[in-house]
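Hi support team,

I submitted a single chain yesterday and got back a structure, but I'm not sure I'm reading the token output correctly. Could someone confirm the output below corresponds to the sequence I sent? I've pasted both exactly as they appear in my results page.

Thanks,
R.
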Amino acid sequence: MSFEKFTYAVREETVGGIVRYFAAFQDGAGILREVEIPREVYLALEDCRRDANRQIVSIKRHQERLALSESQLAARASALPTAMEECVEMRAALATLTETQWRRFMLYHAHGLSIEQIAQTENRAIHAIEQSINAATGKLKNFFEGGIEKQGSECAID
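Hi R., thanks for writing in. Yes, this is the structure output for that exact sequence:
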């Protein structure tokens, strides 16, 4: 059984500075259709696609774990504290950002929005968004290179 097939595809198109969003799918007769959709619907469908991809990865990991031997499972379990420490360290690093830097950094890197989309959403100049994201990136690099005192696990960034 393949979980990797989506019944739709979405895309964005910019013509003359105007961004338009489209969804493509096969109708009941098997004919490929494409319709223009609002930005909000595009973002919701992209979120669904990302969630489905996360579930696919989770299912594959689960299936992989079922095939692991006891010694392989033990080796992976011993590596878990390191992954936990990395998670705590990443949360501490993100806590060094201002709220605006964090939001823009996450929109750009985690949610895949372009700088132009963020600028349009926040009604700000493109260079202001670029500077904010670059400042956030610089702070994070500085944190991981040891330039900022690490704050520990009391940071809660969600």
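A quick pointer for reading it: The radius of gyration is 21 Å. Let us know if anything else looks off.

Best,
Support desk
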